Amino acid sequence: MTLLVLPQPYDFELSTERFRAFGPDLANLWLDGGLHRVVAGREVRIEAAAGGVDVDPLDEETWPVVEKLLGLEFDLDVFAGWASGRPVLAELVRRLAGFRPPLAPDPFEALVTSITAQQVSLHAAFAIRNRLTRRFGERGEHAHAFPTRERLAAAEPDELVAVGFSRSKAAYTVGLARSELDLDGLASLGDDDVRAAVTSVRGLGPWTAEWFLARHLARPRAWPAGDLGLRKAADFFYGLDVHALGPRLDPFQNLSAHYLLTGMRVV
What we know:
Blueprint: E1 2-5, H1 12-15, H2 18-21, E2 29-31, E3 34-39, E4 42-49, E5 52-56, H3 63-69, H4 76-83, H5 87-95, H6 107-117, H7 122-136, H8 149-153, H9 157-161, H10 167-178, H11 191-199, H12 206-215, H13 228-238, H14 242-248, H15 253-266
Antiparallel strand pairs: 1-5, 2-3, 3-4, 4-5
Helix pairs in contact: 5-15, 6-10, 6-12, 11-12, 13-15
């Protein structure tokens, strides 16, 4: 195990809550107090440690994935300073002390995850995604690697229907895998260009593009206003329509969304 020191406060169990809230996630598996993820054929385990987390193995190959899973791209000190003058968020920051939102390590996985969550409960989406991962992903010791773009490009939509996808979602997923969209190149684009590129693919709309900006690219102004959970959180905490609330949270819409959603579940 290698100790990775993290900015404090940091609460590992709270920060990884999303990986357990809607059922097990085979690609990001919570097991015996640690998070498991298969990276290039090796299973990585992350667990809480004094001052941060212990990671095994941690090297040049696993670091980019660990960095995403721990949400290290977020500057929480700046956010907390901004939130201190806003009563709702200031209280959430206090009550969720140590929370650092995790990010999706892989762009293809992030988009397929959004496809599976379209118009169904997150519990159902997790279950369907697990069946996909078990069927098409490589198994590690405990966790499974999420299916690669190449593996799903070689699949037929009917194979995805067999694991629980609707016919439309199966077509969208295989179509994304076979598309010419440069997923790694999206990180170099501005927000609006990312939105245009993602929504150019059949089956990927503004909601998917916004969550891609938020949960993979960690863009500060990403605001998934079409998300049902976020609409409920905006109404619960502020009594406002989500579209009206977004501009009031500029330039920290993304982190605000993470705190509001987690606050709804945990606080």
